[in-house]
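so my prof wants the structure for this chain in the C-alpha coordinates format not the other one, which i didnt know existed until like an hour ago. anyway here's the sequence
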Amino acid sequence: MSGDQKNYDSAVISHTNPERDIKRKADSFDGGSSCKVAKSYSHGEVVRVQRIWTRKFRPLKTFNLVENYFSTGPTIEHVKSISFEALVVFLREKPIIAVSKACLQRIHLLSTFRHGSPSKALAPENVNVRVFLAAFMIAYRPTHVFESMGALEQSLFESAMPLLTTFERIIQCIRSSAKRSFQEVPPDLTEGFPTMLFEYLKRFKAWKVPDEAKLTCRIKHALIALYQAEEHLPPDEPEDSKLKVEFRTQIERLRSKLQQIAGVDALNQFDEQRKAGQVSGPAAGGGGSGGSGGGTGGGAYAALPGRMTNEQLAHELLLDPTFQLDESGGCSVENPVFHRIRESFHQAFWDSLVDDLKLASPCYVRVLRVLAEIRDGINDLAGSKESGSISEAVDLEFIKQQAEQGLYGWDNCMRLIGSIVAVIQRVQAPKRDDETRARWKQVGQAMQEAAGADQPRAFCKALEFLLDRVNAMRIDAANARLRLIAPVIKDHGIDYERGKFQDKLNDGSLTLERTQDWIRKTLRREVVSKTVELESLLEGKAASYVHIHTVAMLALVAETAPLKSETCPETLLFDVHRLSLLQREFQYLVTSATMLVTATHGVTSTKNIADTEVLASISDLFVSDSKSEIDVDQVLAYHP
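here's what i got, hopefully its the right format
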Protein backbone atom coordinates (compact mmCIF):
# COMPACT_ATOMS: atom_id res chain seq x y z
CA MET A 1 0.00 0.00 0.00
CA SER A 2 1.37 3.45 -0.95
CA GLY A 3 2.32 6.04 1.63
CA ASP A 4 -0.47 8.44 0.79
CA GLN A 5 -3.01 5.61 1.02
CA LYS A 6 -1.79 4.91 4.57
CA ASN A 7 -2.19 8.56 5.42
CA TYR A 8 -5.65 8.58 3.96
CA ASP A 9 -6.67 5.46 5.86
CA SER A 10 -5.78 7.17 9.11
CA ALA A 11 -7.55 10.35 8.02
CA VAL A 12 -10.88 8.71 7.36
CA ILE A 13 -10.82 6.78 10.63
CA SER A 14 -13.59 9.01 12.00
CA HIS A 15 -15.79 8.18 9.02
CA THR A 16 -14.84 4.53 8.41
CA ASN A 17 -13.20 2.50 11.21
CA PRO A 18 -11.18 -0.41 9.72
CA GLU A 19 -10.77 -2.23 13.00
CA ARG A 20 -14.48 -2.06 13.63
CA ASP A 21 -15.20 -3.34 10.11
CA ILE A 22 -12.70 -6.19 10.45
CA LYS A 23 -14.15 -7.18 13.81
CA ARG A 24 -17.66 -7.11 12.33
CA LYS A 25 -16.54 -9.38 9.49
CA ALA A 26 -14.73 -11.70 11.89
CA ASP A 27 -17.79 -11.90 14.11
CA SER A 28 -19.87 -12.92 11.15
CA PHE A 29 -17.35 -15.64 10.28
CA ASP A 30 -17.33 -17.27 13.72
CA GLY A 31 -21.06 -17.14 14.29
CA GLY A 32 -21.23 -13.63 15.69
CA SER A 33 -19.46 -14.38 18.96
CA SER A 34 -17.94 -11.42 20.76
CA CYS A 35 -14.17 -11.64 20.48
CA LYS A 36 -11.07 -9.49 20.18
CA VAL A 37 -9.70 -8.35 16.84
CA ALA A 38 -6.34 -9.87 17.81
CA LYS A 39 -7.81 -13.39 17.60
CA SER A 40 -6.09 -15.49 14.94
CA TYR A 41 -8.11 -16.20 11.82
CA SER A 42 -7.63 -18.53 8.97
CA HIS A 43 -5.73 -17.31 5.95
CA GLY A 44 -8.90 -17.47 3.82
CA GLU A 45 -10.82 -15.24 6.21
CA VAL A 46 -8.09 -12.63 6.24
CA VAL A 47 -7.87 -12.63 2.43
CA ARG A 48 -11.62 -12.18 2.15
CA VAL A 49 -11.55 -9.17 4.47
CA GLN A 50 -8.64 -7.65 2.54
CA ARG A 51 -10.47 -8.06 -0.77
CA ILE A 52 -13.58 -6.42 0.59
CA TRP A 53 -11.51 -3.55 1.95
CA THR A 54 -9.59 -3.14 -1.34
CA ARG A 55 -12.75 -3.17 -3.46
CA LYS A 56 -14.31 -0.54 -1.23
CA PHE A 57 -11.44 1.93 -1.28
CA ARG A 58 -9.63 1.29 -4.57
CA PRO A 59 -11.58 4.06 -6.37
CA LEU A 60 -10.56 6.42 -3.57
CA LYS A 61 -6.84 6.03 -4.14
CA THR A 62 -5.23 9.41 -4.65
CA PHE A 63 -3.90 8.56 -8.09
CA ASN A 64 -7.37 7.46 -9.28
CA LEU A 65 -8.95 10.67 -8.00
CA VAL A 66 -6.25 12.72 -9.74
CA GLU A 67 -6.68 10.82 -13.01
CA ASN A 68 -10.45 11.32 -12.93
CA TYR A 69 -9.99 15.03 -12.33
CA PHE A 70 -7.36 15.46 -15.03
CA SER A 71 -9.40 13.59 -17.65
CA THR A 72 -12.78 15.13 -16.77
CA GLY A 73 -12.37 18.23 -14.61
CA PRO A 74 -11.24 21.74 -15.49
CA THR A 75 -7.61 22.43 -16.38
CA ILE A 76 -6.02 25.80 -16.93
CA GLU A 77 -5.34 25.08 -20.59
CA HIS A 78 -8.94 24.01 -21.24
CA VAL A 79 -10.38 27.00 -19.38
CA LYS A 80 -8.31 29.41 -21.47
CA SER A 81 -9.50 27.82 -24.71
CA ILE A 82 -13.28 28.21 -24.22
CA SER A 83 -15.61 31.19 -23.98
CA PHE A 84 -16.91 32.52 -20.68
CA GLU A 85 -20.44 31.31 -21.45
CA ALA A 86 -19.17 27.78 -22.16
CA LEU A 87 -17.03 27.89 -19.01
CA VAL A 88 -20.03 28.77 -16.83
CA VAL A 89 -22.02 25.84 -18.21
CA PHE A 90 -19.02 23.50 -17.86
CA LEU A 91 -18.36 24.37 -14.21
CA ARG A 92 -22.03 23.79 -13.30
CA GLU A 93 -22.12 20.20 -14.55
CA LYS A 94 -22.60 17.69 -11.73
CA PRO A 95 -19.86 15.25 -12.88
CA ILE A 96 -17.35 18.13 -12.97
CA ILE A 97 -18.33 19.22 -9.48
CA ALA A 98 -18.08 15.64 -8.18
CA VAL A 99 -14.60 14.84 -9.52
CA SER A 100 -13.31 18.29 -8.53
CA LYS A 101 -14.63 17.92 -4.98
CA ALA A 102 -13.05 14.49 -4.50
CA CYS A 103 -9.66 15.58 -5.86
CA LEU A 104 -9.56 18.93 -4.02
CA GLN A 105 -10.49 17.43 -0.68
CA ARG A 106 -7.83 14.71 -1.03
CA ILE A 107 -5.02 17.12 -2.02
CA HIS A 108 -6.00 19.49 0.76
CA LEU A 109 -6.19 16.67 3.29
CA LEU A 110 -2.78 15.25 2.46
CA SER A 111 -1.18 18.72 2.33
CA THR A 112 -2.63 19.49 5.76
CA PHE A 113 -1.28 16.21 7.18
CA ARG A 114 2.12 17.10 5.87
CA HIS A 115 2.32 20.80 6.87
CA GLY A 116 -0.60 21.55 9.18
CA SER A 117 -3.67 23.75 8.63
CA PRO A 118 -3.71 27.57 8.73
CA SER A 119 -7.13 27.42 10.43
CA LYS A 120 -9.06 24.85 12.43
CA ALA A 121 -12.20 25.83 10.55
CA LEU A 122 -10.66 24.79 7.23
CA ALA A 123 -11.36 21.06 7.37
CA PRO A 124 -11.36 19.26 4.00
CA GLU A 125 -15.07 18.52 4.22
CA ASN A 126 -15.78 22.23 4.82
CA VAL A 127 -14.21 23.43 1.58
CA ASN A 128 -16.90 24.58 -0.85
CA VAL A 129 -15.86 23.13 -4.18
CA ARG A 130 -18.11 25.53 -6.12
CA VAL A 131 -16.21 28.46 -4.65
CA PHE A 132 -12.96 26.78 -5.63
CA LEU A 133 -14.21 26.24 -9.20
CA ALA A 134 -15.20 29.91 -9.35
CA ALA A 135 -11.47 30.66 -9.14
CA PHE A 136 -11.16 29.60 -12.78
CA MET A 137 -13.56 32.36 -13.83
CA ILE A 138 -11.99 34.88 -11.47
CA ALA A 139 -8.43 34.16 -12.61
CA TYR A 140 -8.97 33.79 -16.36
CA ARG A 141 -12.16 35.77 -17.06
CA PRO A 142 -12.01 38.62 -14.51
CA THR A 143 -13.72 41.19 -16.75
CA HIS A 144 -16.77 38.93 -16.96
CA VAL A 145 -16.90 38.35 -13.20
CA PHE A 146 -16.08 41.79 -11.79
CA GLU A 147 -17.95 44.97 -12.57
CA SER A 148 -14.83 46.89 -11.66
CA MET A 149 -11.43 46.11 -10.13
CA GLY A 150 -11.65 47.63 -6.69
CA ALA A 151 -9.51 46.65 -3.71
CA LEU A 152 -11.58 43.56 -2.87
CA GLU A 153 -11.72 42.42 -6.48
CA GLN A 154 -7.98 42.91 -7.00
CA SER A 155 -7.18 41.02 -3.81
CA LEU A 156 -9.38 38.08 -4.82
CA PHE A 157 -7.97 38.01 -8.35
CA GLU A 158 -4.40 37.94 -7.02
CA SER A 159 -5.19 34.96 -4.78
CA ALA A 160 -7.00 32.85 -7.40
CA MET A 161 -4.28 32.34 -10.00
CA PRO A 162 -1.47 31.09 -7.67
CA LEU A 163 -3.95 28.70 -6.04
CA LEU A 164 -4.98 27.12 -9.35
CA THR A 165 -1.40 26.96 -10.63
CA THR A 166 -0.16 25.23 -7.47
CA PHE A 167 -3.11 22.82 -7.44
CA GLU A 168 -2.47 21.77 -11.03
CA ARG A 169 1.30 21.37 -10.43
CA ILE A 170 0.60 19.03 -7.49
CA ILE A 171 -1.72 16.95 -9.66
CA GLN A 172 0.83 16.73 -12.46
CA CYS A 173 3.54 15.65 -10.01
CA ILE A 174 1.37 12.80 -8.75
CA ARG A 175 0.58 11.67 -12.29
CA SER A 176 4.20 11.75 -13.41
CA SER A 177 5.83 10.24 -10.28
CA ALA A 178 7.25 6.71 -10.39
CA LYS A 179 5.00 5.37 -7.63
CA ARG A 180 2.11 7.67 -8.61
CA SER A 181 1.88 8.79 -5.02
CA PHE A 182 1.44 12.06 -3.11
CA GLN A 183 4.50 10.97 -1.10
CA GLU A 184 6.70 11.89 -4.06
CA VAL A 185 5.37 15.45 -4.45
CA PRO A 186 8.09 17.90 -3.26
CA PRO A 187 7.21 19.38 0.16
CA ASP A 188 8.05 22.92 -0.99
CA LEU A 189 5.24 22.60 -3.59
CA THR A 190 2.57 21.47 -1.11
CA GLU A 191 3.66 23.61 1.84
CA GLY A 192 1.82 26.74 0.74
CA PHE A 193 -1.31 25.08 -0.66
CA PRO A 194 -3.45 25.02 2.54
CA THR A 195 -2.59 28.66 3.20
CA MET A 196 -3.34 29.64 -0.43
CA LEU A 197 -6.71 27.91 -0.25
CA PHE A 198 -7.54 29.50 3.10
CA GLU A 199 -6.54 32.97 1.85
CA TYR A 200 -8.57 32.59 -1.34
CA LEU A 201 -11.70 31.46 0.54
CA LYS A 202 -11.32 34.33 3.02
CA ARG A 203 -10.97 36.92 0.25
CA PHE A 204 -13.85 35.38 -1.68
CA LYS A 205 -16.12 35.78 1.35
CA ALA A 206 -14.98 39.38 1.88
CA TRP A 207 -15.87 40.18 -1.75
CA LYS A 208 -19.06 38.11 -1.84
CA VAL A 209 -20.95 39.77 1.04
CA PRO A 210 -21.12 43.33 -0.39
CA ASP A 211 -21.44 41.96 -3.91
CA GLU A 212 -24.48 39.89 -2.92
CA ALA A 213 -26.10 42.91 -1.26
CA LYS A 214 -25.59 44.90 -4.45
CA LEU A 215 -26.90 42.11 -6.69
CA THR A 216 -29.94 41.53 -4.47
CA CYS A 217 -31.03 45.16 -4.86
CA ARG A 218 -30.50 45.10 -8.62
CA ILE A 219 -32.38 41.83 -9.08
CA LYS A 220 -35.37 43.19 -7.14
CA HIS A 221 -35.49 46.32 -9.30
CA ALA A 222 -35.21 44.22 -12.45
CA LEU A 223 -38.07 41.99 -11.28
CA ILE A 224 -40.22 45.05 -10.55
CA ALA A 225 -39.54 46.33 -14.08
CA LEU A 226 -40.37 42.94 -15.63
CA TYR A 227 -43.63 42.60 -13.71
CA GLN A 228 -44.55 46.16 -14.73
CA ALA A 229 -43.64 45.46 -18.35
CA GLU A 230 -45.77 42.32 -18.38
CA GLU A 231 -48.73 44.34 -17.07
CA HIS A 232 -48.26 46.83 -19.93
CA LEU A 233 -48.81 44.11 -22.55
CA PRO A 234 -52.28 44.15 -24.14
CA PRO A 235 -54.86 41.77 -22.62
CA ASP A 236 -55.07 39.89 -25.92
CA GLU A 237 -51.30 39.34 -26.14
CA PRO A 238 -50.81 35.68 -27.18
CA GLU A 239 -49.31 33.42 -24.52
CA ASP A 240 -46.56 32.36 -26.91
CA SER A 241 -45.64 35.85 -28.12
CA LYS A 242 -41.95 36.68 -28.11
CA LEU A 243 -42.27 39.43 -25.51
CA LYS A 244 -44.47 37.51 -23.08
CA VAL A 245 -42.28 34.41 -23.27
CA GLU A 246 -39.13 36.49 -22.80
CA PHE A 247 -40.59 38.39 -19.84
CA ARG A 248 -41.65 35.20 -18.06
CA THR A 249 -38.34 33.49 -18.80
CA GLN A 250 -36.41 36.42 -17.34
CA ILE A 251 -38.72 36.61 -14.32
CA GLU A 252 -38.15 32.93 -13.52
CA ARG A 253 -34.40 33.30 -14.04
CA LEU A 254 -34.15 36.33 -11.75
CA ARG A 255 -36.38 34.78 -9.08
CA SER A 256 -34.14 31.73 -9.05
CA LYS A 257 -31.08 34.00 -8.84
CA LEU A 258 -32.59 36.00 -5.97
CA GLN A 259 -33.34 32.80 -4.06
CA GLN A 260 -29.83 31.51 -4.72
CA ILE A 261 -28.15 34.72 -3.53
CA ALA A 262 -30.42 36.00 -0.75
CA GLY A 263 -32.36 32.88 0.25
CA VAL A 264 -35.97 31.74 0.22
CA ASP A 265 -37.00 34.20 2.94
CA ALA A 266 -35.83 37.17 0.85
CA LEU A 267 -37.81 35.92 -2.16
CA ASN A 268 -40.95 35.38 -0.05
CA GLN A 269 -40.56 38.83 1.49
CA PHE A 270 -40.27 40.38 -1.97
CA ASP A 271 -43.46 38.58 -3.10
CA GLU A 272 -45.35 39.75 0.00
CA GLN A 273 -44.21 43.34 -0.49
CA ARG A 274 -45.19 43.24 -4.15
CA LYS A 275 -48.66 41.92 -3.36
CA ALA A 276 -49.08 44.59 -0.68
CA GLY A 277 -47.99 47.28 -3.14
CA GLN A 278 -44.90 48.14 -1.09
CA VAL A 279 -42.53 47.79 -4.04
CA SER A 280 -43.07 50.47 -6.63
CA GLY A 281 -42.48 50.64 -10.31
CA PRO A 282 -42.22 53.79 -12.43
CA ALA A 283 -44.59 56.55 -11.52
CA ALA A 284 -47.27 57.51 -13.97
CA GLY A 285 -45.96 59.94 -16.48
CA GLY A 286 -42.40 59.45 -15.32
CA GLY A 287 -39.73 57.42 -16.91
CA GLY A 288 -36.04 57.50 -17.20
CA SER A 289 -34.91 58.90 -20.46
CA GLY A 290 -31.36 57.73 -20.37
CA GLY A 291 -30.04 55.23 -22.81
CA SER A 292 -28.30 53.48 -19.93
CA GLY A 293 -31.59 52.36 -18.53
CA GLY A 294 -31.89 49.40 -20.76
CA GLY A 295 -29.40 47.20 -18.99
CA THR A 296 -31.70 46.33 -16.08
CA GLY A 297 -34.07 44.12 -18.00
CA GLY A 298 -31.41 42.03 -19.67
CA GLY A 299 -32.76 39.87 -22.51
CA ALA A 300 -36.30 41.12 -21.91
CA TYR A 301 -35.31 44.69 -22.78
CA ALA A 302 -33.38 43.42 -25.79
CA ALA A 303 -36.54 41.67 -27.00
CA LEU A 304 -38.20 45.07 -27.52
CA PRO A 305 -37.99 46.57 -31.00
CA GLY A 306 -34.79 48.55 -31.31
CA ARG A 307 -34.39 52.17 -32.34
CA MET A 308 -34.98 53.13 -35.94
CA THR A 309 -32.51 51.76 -38.47
CA ASN A 310 -31.27 53.61 -41.55
CA GLU A 311 -33.76 51.65 -43.66
CA GLN A 312 -36.65 52.68 -41.44
CA LEU A 313 -35.55 56.31 -41.53
CA ALA A 314 -35.35 56.18 -45.33
CA HIS A 315 -38.82 54.64 -45.45
CA GLU A 316 -40.31 57.37 -43.24
CA LEU A 317 -38.64 60.08 -45.34
CA LEU A 318 -40.11 58.55 -48.48
CA LEU A 319 -43.59 58.80 -46.99
CA ASP A 320 -43.00 62.20 -45.40
CA PRO A 321 -39.98 64.35 -46.45
CA THR A 322 -40.55 66.49 -43.32
CA PHE A 323 -40.33 63.49 -40.99
CA GLN A 324 -38.24 63.92 -37.86
CA LEU A 325 -37.48 61.89 -34.74
CA ASP A 326 -39.56 62.59 -31.66
CA GLU A 327 -38.19 63.38 -28.21
CA SER A 328 -37.62 59.70 -27.42
CA GLY A 329 -35.62 59.12 -30.59
CA GLY A 330 -38.43 57.18 -32.30
CA CYS A 331 -41.37 58.14 -34.43
CA SER A 332 -44.88 59.19 -33.54
CA VAL A 333 -46.39 55.94 -34.84
CA GLU A 334 -44.37 53.73 -32.46
CA ASN A 335 -46.47 51.31 -30.42
CA PRO A 336 -47.25 53.07 -27.09
CA VAL A 337 -46.99 49.71 -25.31
CA PHE A 338 -43.29 49.54 -26.15
CA HIS A 339 -42.82 53.09 -24.92
CA ARG A 340 -44.37 52.27 -21.53
CA ILE A 341 -42.30 49.09 -21.22
CA ARG A 342 -39.11 51.04 -21.92
CA GLU A 343 -40.09 53.53 -19.24
CA SER A 344 -40.42 50.67 -16.74
CA PHE A 345 -36.91 49.44 -17.49
CA HIS A 346 -35.43 52.94 -17.46
CA GLN A 347 -36.98 53.77 -14.10
CA ALA A 348 -35.75 50.47 -12.66
CA PHE A 349 -32.23 51.38 -13.77
CA TRP A 350 -32.27 54.75 -12.03
CA ASP A 351 -33.81 53.29 -8.86
CA SER A 352 -31.13 50.59 -8.71
CA LEU A 353 -28.48 53.27 -9.27
CA VAL A 354 -29.74 55.05 -6.15
CA ASP A 355 -29.43 51.81 -4.20
CA ASP A 356 -25.85 51.40 -5.44
CA LEU A 357 -24.98 54.66 -3.70
CA LYS A 358 -26.86 53.70 -0.52
CA LEU A 359 -24.91 50.48 0.07
CA ALA A 360 -22.71 50.19 3.16
CA SER A 361 -19.80 50.25 0.71
CA PRO A 362 -21.19 52.40 -2.12
CA CYS A 363 -20.69 51.11 -5.67
CA TYR A 364 -19.71 53.89 -8.08
CA VAL A 365 -19.17 51.78 -11.20
CA ARG A 366 -22.44 52.50 -12.99
CA VAL A 367 -22.47 56.14 -11.87
CA LEU A 368 -19.08 56.55 -13.53
CA ARG A 369 -20.40 54.85 -16.66
CA VAL A 370 -23.28 57.31 -16.88
CA LEU A 371 -20.86 60.20 -16.43
CA ALA A 372 -18.68 58.72 -19.19
CA GLU A 373 -21.71 58.47 -21.48
CA ILE A 374 -22.59 62.11 -20.78
CA ARG A 375 -19.01 63.27 -21.37
CA ASP A 376 -18.59 61.26 -24.58
CA GLY A 377 -21.95 62.40 -25.91
CA ILE A 378 -21.03 66.06 -25.44
CA ASN A 379 -17.63 65.45 -27.01
CA ASP A 380 -19.22 63.82 -30.07
CA LEU A 381 -21.69 66.65 -30.55
CA ALA A 382 -19.49 69.63 -29.70
CA GLY A 383 -16.25 68.45 -31.24
CA SER A 384 -13.02 70.18 -30.33
CA LYS A 385 -14.81 73.37 -29.31
CA GLU A 386 -15.78 72.06 -25.86
CA SER A 387 -13.67 68.90 -25.53
CA GLY A 388 -11.25 70.56 -23.13
CA SER A 389 -14.01 71.98 -20.95
CA ILE A 390 -15.96 68.75 -20.59
CA SER A 391 -12.83 66.65 -20.05
CA GLU A 392 -11.74 68.98 -17.28
CA ALA A 393 -15.19 68.97 -15.68
CA VAL A 394 -15.60 65.17 -15.88
CA ASP A 395 -12.20 63.78 -14.88
CA LEU A 396 -13.37 60.22 -14.23
CA GLU A 397 -10.11 58.89 -12.83
CA PHE A 398 -9.90 61.71 -10.29
CA ILE A 399 -13.59 61.34 -9.36
CA LYS A 400 -13.17 57.58 -8.92
CA GLN A 401 -10.11 57.93 -6.67
CA GLN A 402 -11.72 60.62 -4.54
CA ALA A 403 -15.03 58.74 -4.23
CA GLU A 404 -13.41 55.43 -3.24
CA GLN A 405 -11.40 57.22 -0.55
CA GLY A 406 -14.53 58.98 0.74
CA LEU A 407 -13.19 62.41 -0.19
CA TYR A 408 -15.74 63.34 -2.87
CA GLY A 409 -18.38 65.25 -0.93
CA TRP A 410 -21.79 66.65 -1.77
CA ASP A 411 -20.36 70.07 -2.66
CA ASN A 412 -18.13 68.35 -5.24
CA CYS A 413 -21.18 66.62 -6.69
CA MET A 414 -23.09 69.89 -7.04
CA ARG A 415 -20.12 71.62 -8.71
CA LEU A 416 -19.73 68.66 -11.10
CA ILE A 417 -23.37 68.80 -12.22
CA GLY A 418 -23.25 72.59 -12.54
CA SER A 419 -20.11 72.45 -14.70
CA ILE A 420 -21.67 69.93 -17.07
CA VAL A 421 -24.89 71.95 -17.34
CA ALA A 422 -22.85 75.03 -18.28
CA VAL A 423 -21.18 73.12 -21.15
CA ILE A 424 -24.53 71.72 -22.34
CA GLN A 425 -26.08 75.19 -22.43
CA ARG A 426 -23.25 76.38 -24.67
CA VAL A 427 -23.53 73.39 -27.04
CA GLN A 428 -27.27 72.72 -27.37
CA ALA A 429 -29.61 74.23 -29.96
CA PRO A 430 -31.02 77.66 -28.96
CA LYS A 431 -34.57 76.26 -29.00
CA ARG A 432 -33.65 74.09 -26.00
CA ASP A 433 -32.39 76.96 -23.82
CA ASP A 434 -35.64 77.78 -22.01
CA GLU A 435 -36.48 74.13 -21.39
CA THR A 436 -33.01 73.32 -20.04
CA ARG A 437 -32.94 76.44 -17.86
CA ALA A 438 -36.32 75.62 -16.28
CA ARG A 439 -35.48 71.98 -15.59
CA TRP A 440 -32.02 72.82 -14.24
CA LYS A 441 -33.61 75.25 -11.83
CA GLN A 442 -35.73 72.40 -10.40
CA VAL A 443 -32.86 69.90 -10.31
CA GLY A 444 -30.41 72.37 -8.77
CA GLN A 445 -32.89 73.39 -6.09
CA ALA A 446 -33.58 69.73 -5.23
CA MET A 447 -29.84 69.11 -4.84
CA GLN A 448 -29.42 72.12 -2.56
CA GLU A 449 -32.30 71.03 -0.34
CA ALA A 450 -31.34 67.33 -0.22
CA ALA A 451 -30.44 66.01 3.23
CA GLY A 452 -27.87 63.22 3.71
CA ALA A 453 -30.25 60.29 3.12
CA ASP A 454 -31.83 62.00 0.09
CA GLN A 455 -28.59 62.95 -1.64
CA PRO A 456 -28.13 59.69 -3.64
CA ARG A 457 -31.55 60.09 -5.24
CA ALA A 458 -31.05 63.80 -5.88
CA PHE A 459 -27.70 63.08 -7.54
CA CYS A 460 -29.18 60.33 -9.73
CA LYS A 461 -32.03 62.64 -10.74
CA ALA A 462 -29.40 65.16 -11.79
CA LEU A 463 -27.59 62.51 -13.85
CA GLU A 464 -30.88 61.55 -15.47
CA PHE A 465 -31.49 65.18 -16.35
CA LEU A 466 -28.01 65.52 -17.89
CA LEU A 467 -28.35 62.33 -19.92
CA ASP A 468 -31.76 63.48 -21.13
CA ARG A 469 -30.23 66.78 -22.32
CA VAL A 470 -27.45 64.92 -24.16
CA ASN A 471 -30.01 62.65 -25.83
CA ALA A 472 -32.07 65.70 -26.82
CA MET A 473 -28.96 67.17 -28.48
CA ARG A 474 -28.39 63.89 -30.29
CA ILE A 475 -31.95 63.95 -31.60
CA ASP A 476 -31.57 67.57 -32.76
CA ALA A 477 -28.37 66.66 -34.60
CA ALA A 478 -30.03 63.60 -36.17
CA ASN A 479 -33.03 65.64 -37.33
CA ALA A 480 -30.69 68.20 -38.88
CA ARG A 481 -29.02 65.39 -40.85
CA LEU A 482 -32.44 64.08 -41.94
CA ARG A 483 -33.23 67.47 -43.46
CA LEU A 484 -30.02 67.26 -45.47
CA ILE A 485 -30.60 63.76 -46.83
CA ALA A 486 -34.36 64.11 -47.47
CA PRO A 487 -33.85 65.31 -51.10
CA VAL A 488 -31.51 62.38 -51.77
CA ILE A 489 -34.02 59.90 -50.35
CA LYS A 490 -36.75 61.42 -52.49
CA ASP A 491 -34.74 60.64 -55.64
CA HIS A 492 -33.09 57.35 -54.66
CA GLY A 493 -35.02 56.02 -51.66
CA ILE A 494 -37.09 53.48 -53.58
CA ASP A 495 -34.01 51.93 -55.17
CA TYR A 496 -32.30 51.90 -51.77
CA GLU A 497 -35.20 50.11 -50.06
CA ARG A 498 -35.60 47.70 -52.95
CA GLY A 499 -31.91 46.79 -52.84
CA LYS A 500 -31.90 46.26 -49.07
CA PHE A 501 -35.00 44.09 -49.27
CA GLN A 502 -33.44 41.98 -52.02
CA ASP A 503 -30.29 41.53 -49.90
CA LYS A 504 -32.42 40.10 -47.10
CA LEU A 505 -34.14 37.73 -49.49
CA ASN A 506 -30.79 36.59 -50.85
CA ASP A 507 -29.23 35.88 -47.45
CA GLY A 508 -32.37 34.12 -46.19
CA SER A 509 -33.09 36.51 -43.31
CA LEU A 510 -36.45 37.31 -44.94
CA THR A 511 -38.93 35.42 -47.12
CA LEU A 512 -42.10 36.33 -49.00
CA GLU A 513 -44.29 33.56 -47.57
CA ARG A 514 -46.72 35.79 -45.63
CA THR A 515 -46.88 38.37 -48.45
CA GLN A 516 -47.66 35.75 -51.08
CA ASP A 517 -50.28 34.12 -48.87
CA TRP A 518 -51.91 37.51 -48.20
CA ILE A 519 -52.11 38.40 -51.92
CA ARG A 520 -53.17 34.86 -52.89
CA LYS A 521 -56.16 34.94 -50.53
CA THR A 522 -57.26 38.33 -51.87
CA LEU A 523 -56.91 37.20 -55.48
CA ARG A 524 -58.89 34.05 -54.88
CA ARG A 525 -61.68 35.92 -53.08
CA GLU A 526 -61.96 38.65 -55.71
CA VAL A 527 -61.80 36.29 -58.70
CA VAL A 528 -64.38 33.89 -57.21
CA SER A 529 -66.75 36.81 -56.50
CA LYS A 530 -66.11 38.02 -60.08
CA THR A 531 -65.20 41.46 -58.78
CA VAL A 532 -62.07 41.20 -60.88
CA GLU A 533 -61.68 39.24 -64.08
CA LEU A 534 -58.79 36.82 -64.14
CA GLU A 535 -58.13 37.69 -67.79
CA SER A 536 -57.57 41.35 -66.91
CA LEU A 537 -54.95 40.34 -64.38
CA LEU A 538 -53.26 38.01 -66.84
CA GLU A 539 -53.24 40.83 -69.40
CA GLY A 540 -51.52 43.06 -66.84
CA LYS A 541 -54.19 45.76 -66.65
CA ALA A 542 -53.10 48.33 -64.07
CA ALA A 543 -56.63 49.00 -62.78
CA SER A 544 -57.08 45.35 -61.78
CA TYR A 545 -53.78 45.27 -59.90
CA VAL A 546 -54.60 48.52 -58.10
CA HIS A 547 -57.97 47.07 -57.10
CA ILE A 548 -56.40 43.87 -55.73
CA HIS A 549 -53.84 45.86 -53.76
CA THR A 550 -56.51 48.20 -52.35
CA VAL A 551 -58.75 45.32 -51.26
CA ALA A 552 -55.78 43.49 -49.70
CA MET A 553 -54.84 46.57 -47.67
CA LEU A 554 -58.44 47.06 -46.55
CA ALA A 555 -58.55 43.44 -45.44
CA LEU A 556 -55.54 44.04 -43.20
CA VAL A 557 -57.07 47.15 -41.66
CA ALA A 558 -60.48 45.49 -41.15
CA GLU A 559 -58.94 42.40 -39.54
CA THR A 560 -60.11 42.05 -35.92
CA ALA A 561 -56.93 40.29 -34.75
CA PRO A 562 -54.22 42.87 -33.92
CA LEU A 563 -51.54 43.08 -36.59
CA LYS A 564 -48.07 42.16 -35.33
CA SER A 565 -44.61 41.85 -36.85
CA GLU A 566 -44.89 38.05 -36.71
CA THR A 567 -48.08 38.04 -38.83
CA CYS A 568 -47.62 41.11 -41.02
CA PRO A 569 -46.71 40.63 -44.71
CA GLU A 570 -42.94 41.01 -45.09
CA THR A 571 -43.26 43.90 -47.55
CA LEU A 572 -45.13 45.96 -44.92
CA LEU A 573 -42.92 45.35 -41.88
CA PHE A 574 -41.87 49.00 -41.68
CA ASP A 575 -45.56 49.98 -41.50
CA VAL A 576 -46.78 47.61 -38.77
CA HIS A 577 -47.40 50.36 -36.21
CA ARG A 578 -49.05 52.60 -38.79
CA LEU A 579 -51.36 49.77 -39.86
CA SER A 580 -52.09 48.91 -36.22
CA LEU A 581 -53.17 52.49 -35.65
CA LEU A 582 -55.47 52.29 -38.66
CA GLN A 583 -56.87 49.02 -37.30
CA ARG A 584 -57.72 50.67 -33.97
CA GLU A 585 -59.33 53.65 -35.67
CA PHE A 586 -61.37 51.36 -37.94
CA GLN A 587 -62.59 49.31 -34.99
CA TYR A 588 -63.45 52.50 -33.16
CA LEU A 589 -65.50 53.74 -36.10
CA VAL A 590 -67.35 50.42 -36.35
CA THR A 591 -68.11 50.46 -32.61
CA SER A 592 -69.17 54.11 -32.72
CA ALA A 593 -71.48 53.55 -35.67
CA THR A 594 -73.02 50.49 -34.01
CA MET A 595 -73.71 52.41 -30.80
CA LEU A 596 -75.17 55.38 -32.66
CA VAL A 597 -77.44 53.16 -34.76
CA THR A 598 -78.63 51.37 -31.62
CA ALA A 599 -79.23 54.66 -29.82
CA THR A 600 -80.97 56.16 -32.85
CA HIS A 601 -83.29 53.18 -33.05
CA GLY A 602 -84.23 53.66 -29.38
CA VAL A 603 -84.82 57.39 -29.80
CA THR A 604 -86.92 56.87 -32.94
CA SER A 605 -89.14 54.35 -31.21
CA THR A 606 -89.74 56.52 -28.10
CA LYS A 607 -89.67 59.98 -29.75
CA ASN A 608 -88.53 61.40 -26.40
CA ILE A 609 -86.87 64.83 -26.55
CA ALA A 610 -84.59 64.03 -23.62
CA ASP A 611 -83.35 60.88 -25.40
CA THR A 612 -82.73 62.94 -28.52
CA GLU A 613 -80.50 65.30 -26.52
CA VAL A 614 -78.60 62.36 -25.07
CA LEU A 615 -78.05 60.99 -28.59
CA ALA A 616 -76.75 64.37 -29.76
CA SER A 617 -74.35 64.54 -26.79
CA ILE A 618 -73.01 61.05 -27.49
CA SER A 619 -72.60 61.86 -31.18
CA ASP A 620 -70.67 65.04 -30.35
CA LEU A 621 -68.46 63.08 -27.99
CA PHE A 622 -67.55 60.53 -30.67
CA VAL A 623 -66.91 63.18 -33.31
CA SER A 624 -64.86 65.49 -31.06
CA ASP A 625 -62.50 62.80 -29.82
CA SER A 626 -59.43 62.81 -32.04
CA LYS A 627 -57.50 60.06 -30.30
CA SER A 628 -60.12 57.34 -30.73
CA GLU A 629 -59.94 56.47 -27.03
CA ILE A 630 -63.49 56.99 -25.78
CA ASP A 631 -64.04 55.68 -22.29
CA VAL A 632 -67.28 53.70 -21.91
CA ASP A 633 -67.90 55.47 -18.60
CA GLN A 634 -67.90 58.79 -20.45
CA VAL A 635 -70.69 57.55 -22.72
CA LEU A 636 -72.72 56.08 -19.86
CA ALA A 637 -72.43 59.35 -17.96
CA TYR A 638 -74.72 60.98 -20.52
CA HIS A 639 -77.51 58.50 -19.83
CA PRO A 640 -80.19 59.96 -17.51
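also thought this was worth mentioning. The CA atoms of residues 324 and 482 lie 7 Å apart.
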